[in-house]
Amino acid sequence: MTTIAFLVLLVGTTIRISAPIAFAALAATHAERSGVINVGIEGCMLFGAFGAVYGSHVSGSAAVGVLVGVLTSAFASLVLAFFCIVLQSNQIVAGMAINILALGMTRFGLDQIWGQPGVSPSVDGLGVLKLPLLSKIPVAGESIFTQNIIVFLLVPITIGSHFLLRRTAFGAHTTAVGELPSAAASVGISVWRTRFIAMAISGALAGLGGAALSLGQLTYFVEAMTAGRGFIALAANILGRWTPIGAVLAALLFGAADALQLSLQVLGVELPAQALLVLPYLVTVVVLAASSRRAHAPKALGEPYDATTPT
Amino acid sequence: MTSRLTGLIRPLTAIPAALVSVGILLALTGDDPFSAMATLADGAFGSSQRTGETLTSFVPLALTGLAVAIGFRAGLFNIGAEGQLLMGALSAAAAGPFLADVPPVLSVPFVMVLGMLSGALWGFIPGYLKAVRDANEVITTLMLSYVAFFVTEYLVTGPLKTDGVLPATDLLPEMLRLPRLTEPGQVGIPDLGRLHAGVFVALAALAVAAFIAHRTTFGLRSRLVGRSVTASEYAGLDVRRTIIQTMALSGSIAGLAGAVQVLGVSYRLSSSFSPGFGFTGIAIALLGNLTAIGVLLAALLFAVLQTGGQVMQRLSGTPSSIVTIIQGLIILFVATRISGIKQVSTMLVRRKARGRRRGEE
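ok -> structure tokens follow
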């Protein structure tokens, strides 16, 4: 394989592999900008991946599947939101609870629905789309612009997220309740409602990431298939300085580590499989260590807001 | 007194709440929750061997629960006990075969210390990154767990692989294995199966940890940092050093769990070494209210659930994944703040009052 062909393969794979992490990273950005740490993204993704496969299994349509996945994940995120926002649970602990619940419930679901442990049967997956014109670009076009449909959603959703947070009243409210909730409340913004909506968006995006994994990259559900991607997404959001575009670019970086290991395997590089599989996790630790950027975090991140205090 | 009582309320409500929720789930899916729970209890205590098996799984659970509690008390969310446990197990399994000729009085403690050091290293790294680079330990500890998993996976299928098809290391020499508490066929003594001397190590670790937490300056520093980093800094504490030390200590206990499990139960490291001891440790630490005695009780409960759950799945076909669900629900319920519930009731009362006023108008 020539160097150029390898690079093209790498870029194409990176985009495909990054999509689930990128959606989840956007999920992290929306939640954290409103002041809620969504540690449950990993679990929401898993719920989304499972819901998508189940929806596709029942309806025979991958599109319906994606919708079911998104709704399942959004629901899980709202449950977490209820505990974090209303009951003022420790957000990290409650998020971990959602992750463990997702692991148990999807395993339980596999057993109840298909009566088999570990893996679901194959269902209708998402089709591949060749972007007209762009995919005709010689050498690179074919590999980069032929992707499953959900990958192409990433561009409008990233731009939409950027626009939502930067240019709309809701975005301003989100930033306000994430930075200084008492001040936001004093001018009549409902801290709880804003955070609930942000968590619903966050859950829906995480579900989209899960569906991109189970119906986009595969056509079936595997137990614990998210494999830490929700946490990699949290890291991507930090690296992206809590902005949608930054988070997605960071997700591409982590995806590249994953794509590199896949591409090297395709090339038949003589390395133990594990040395390659470990790359994305190592890269995440190294990048987090190299980019300490607390200063950019929303000021009220992780702090519950007591809405009963009269202001 | 009040704080002790409120400390008890949450665990004592979380357990029945979780069990009832799972019971409803089972009933909805057409299972009989009562017979499932009965099979589970029978699986955990039905015979002396089963009770022994339950106590055997208590050992790693108590140690990982303690490891997580040590971190959480200092406000450090070490959710990577699983990886620290694997590193401890790895070093024990790797060093074992070289110690065949060393008397057990020396070799057994040596292997345990080695396991603790490996776990401590795996806790030190995220601790250092947290203290010096402000890297979020929730993410780094979990990522390092995956790294530990792939490292052990590589070694048990490659360089350290034993002869044969099993992805596992060589078995430990007989001399190095922890003695079992009972041997089958002894007259007058119930056979406790695989229960081994490591249970005393776990109990001793709990006692030492309680002593460190309440009777040493390190324990005090650690708890103060958990309460408030800002206040600790004002008080002149070296917060960074405390974070690094606490994470290393937390990791060392998880590493000890791995080493003891190798020395006492599996005698080797294999691909299927841990059914998630480190992750269950999170639930145990929280349910145990982050205290040593609480961890002891919570670890017993989870040992019952884990051992009983496996037997239940084998005998009645009720999936053991419900144990994972119970675990998640318990964490969720324990995480709820009493102040949060009070707040909701305040709001409801106010809303009702407002409604009544409107009705009167």
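Chain A has one domain: 13-126+141-296.
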